[in-house]
Amino acid sequence: MPIKGKPWGSSGGMWTGRGCHAWEPATDIYQSAEGWVVKFDLAGVDPDDVTVRIVDHTLFVAGTRRDRTLREGVSHYQMEITYSRFERSIQLPCDLAHARVESEYDNGLLTLTFFVQGGK
Amino acid sequence: MSDVVRVLELPVLTLKNKVVFPYSLEPLTVGRPFSLAAVEAALATEEKQIVLIAQREETEDRPKPEQIFDIGTLGVINRMMRVPGKTETVHLIVQGQERVRVIEWLQNDEYISVRVEVLDEPGGVPDSETEALRRNIDTLVQRALALLPNVPAELRQLVSANDDPARLCYFIANLMQLDLEQEQAALEAQTLNRLMRLVHTYLSREVEILQIRSKIQTDAEAEMGKAQKDYFLRQQLKAIQKELGEEDGEQAEADMMRDRLDKADLPEHVRKEAERELRRMEKLPAAAPDYHVIRTYLEWILDLPWNVSSSESLDLKRAREVLDEDHYDLEDIKDRILQHLAVHKLKPNSKSPILCFAGPPGVGKTSLGQSIARAMDRKFERMSLGGMRDEAELRGHRRTYIGAMPGRIIQSLRRAGVNNPVIMLDEIDKLGSDFRGDPSSALLEVLDPQQNHAFRDHYLDLPVDLSKVFFIGTANNLGGIPPPLRDRMEIITLSGYSEEEKLIIARRYIVPRQVLESGLTPEQVVIDDEALTRIIGRYTREAGVRQLEQRIGRVMRKIALRVAEGSDAIVTVDAESVPTYLGPEKIRPETARESLPPGVATGLAVTETGGEVLFVEAALLPGSKGLTLTGQLGEVMQESARAAYSYLWSNGAKLDIDTSALRDAGLHVHVPAGAVPKDGPSAGVAIVSAIASLCVGRPVRNDTAMTGEITLAGLVFPIGGVKEKVLAARRAGIHRVVLPARNEPDVEDVPADVRKEMEIVFVDNVDEALDNTLAIPVAVEQPVQGD
Questions:
Q1: What is the pTM assigned to this prediction?
Q2: Could you report the per-residue pLDDT of B35-58, keeping only the tens digit for each?
Q3: pLDDT at res. B1
Q4: Of residues B462, B454, B466, B468, the one with CA closest to residue B269
Q5: Contact B81/A84, CB-based, under 8 Å?
Q6: CB nearest to A1's CB, from B49, B93, B164
Q7: CA–CA distance from A36 to each of A55, A114, B747 (Å)?
Q8: Which residues are within 8 A (CB) of B204 and not within 5 positions of it... i.e. 6 or more apart?
């Protein structure tokens, strides 16, 4: 099973403090008149297992995807979804700490909207 | 860093010969049942975590806890895929996360699980060593990346962008081909410095290997480049040859050689050598310099008549006929040749004799060799050794030299095409020798019947049997042949012909031949004996008949001119008309002088061209002292003159000769012609006669020629060349010859008719000689005058 792309996928545990994480969620970033919209693909992740943190210009999202399909008598035949811990940090060119944030979790997508004073 | 100790309880996947480092993404294939069970257990958890630890022993299929290392890596299974097939196998991609140490081994029937504590990242306070190591590692990584071909740009970027030293170290350790102990040591390193030191060591070793590999590769590429170019050019050449219709020259040539070799009749040892060389040739490209050397060598071997003999005629009667046809007289020599043939007939494997004909030029030595070959029905090969100085010319050069060739012996053998030719070694007395070697020494081997069955030429380097070859040498002067060489040959001396013999030779052989060569018919020309005699006597001076042949040839050509101009009259040449063909007489031989004054005596000498008459002149020099000798006299002749002078001086009284003149005046002895060097003791009698005649005032008899060595005691010793000398005297018109008594047997050599004409006086001592040489009448008359 050859591995393509980066063999050294995820970045270090800057936030969690120790070790590294198994995966990084795919992220879309939008720019709007009011500010920024950041969308994370967190399919199958319980919102309770997700932590969002903002330091200055940086947005950290971390959490754990747990395999909840398992029960007695069920086993994997194939596995392509990565479970376990994930983490993602996004840097934006504005002071996020003073922005107003709205979050929405819908159909496995976590959308964070930042309203920055004066637009950008 | 957190100081909270996290303890986890997880299944263990034991790894064979592999360590998974934190941060690395590893593909794994799992097949062992107990490993599969561990993987299943991990997959059955929500977070898919598993502990990856290397086994100490690679071979152990189901290791016990003590056969497994204590420190491993906590990993997450990212992907999983079962491989369809008889035996259950699972492919995994595992993401290494953190280092863990086993606290407790929890045995389970199906798989091993452990309680582990999560270890901190290798840490420690960064100091100057950390920085130094880091910089060194950077340098080494750059060097390694430069040496590795086809490194993706991403990888370079990844390495240079990585600012976490521990992570970089794990990354490098993962990339390198380390053995298990090294990998495990890197994993177990507790401090950052230790980890970096380890990685630095591994990396520098790796760079070294890479450098050597790159050097080897460069060298190999250079080598390959040349070979490929050669190959390419050769293929083109082949294509060109194919276009030209010369398909694959080398192979065709080698095949042809093989074919010839198979057909050739060679002795076993020669065939072996030839096969060996041919195999070498087949392996070489035609462009190789050695190729042509071998080819030439093989051609030589194949061309030599190893086992080819011409059938011999041993019919003695026919042989006698052939010899008589070609040569007049020479009975002695013909007999000896026939004797050899007879022996050969009775004992076919007897060694061939080695004859040497010695004699003046033009007496027919070379043509006698041809006659022998004809008489025996053998091939005839002649090689002239005159002036040969180089031993290698006779015996060849070794094959290592460019343009090497076999020697003349082998070349003659090849030309003859048979192994029993008659080979004539012409002018064997004129072999030179210098620093390059002495060819006469090489001839020793060739001419020794005991040795020449295995003659080794430098070029062939194979023994060649020369024992069937009939060698004949020729020489003008036996003195020029080194004694060891002379010993190996049977010397047959051909002395000069007398005028009568020449006349017969001219009539029988030369005239018919020259008539034909000038395009005339025998009927058109009549040349009488007087004319021939005049040509022989007045237009030639030689022991042989070579000049004679040229003169007769000239006469014939002049006649041919007349005939060609339309005259159809029969041309008759008589003695009178000879000058019209040949001009005035060329030779005025020293004939008997009309009258000899006192002090002049007629001597006889032998030269290469035969005998000659020479005069010894003596004169008294009143007022001078001592003996003066002139006329290019050699040492021996000067001594001979001195002996004559001393003898007369000391024995004057006994001989009744007044020697007072010698005391009162000097003596000058001159021997004309002054420009011709002369030597030898045989003029002794002539000198003593001349001096005595001067003393007694009586001339020497002008009808007498004389020869003989004298001693101080007054004895006359024998000399050589009696026949030539007698013939010379007769030619000069002198019919009385004084010879040493001990030469009496040699007179047998003089043709009988000449002997009949001549009065030959044999003397034992000077006294007798003087009695026979000084003019008697004057001696008788003297007292009368005195009266």
A1: 0.50
A2: 888 998 898 888 889 999 999 888
A3: 45
A4: B462
A5: no
A6: B93
A7: 16, 5, 149
A8: B140
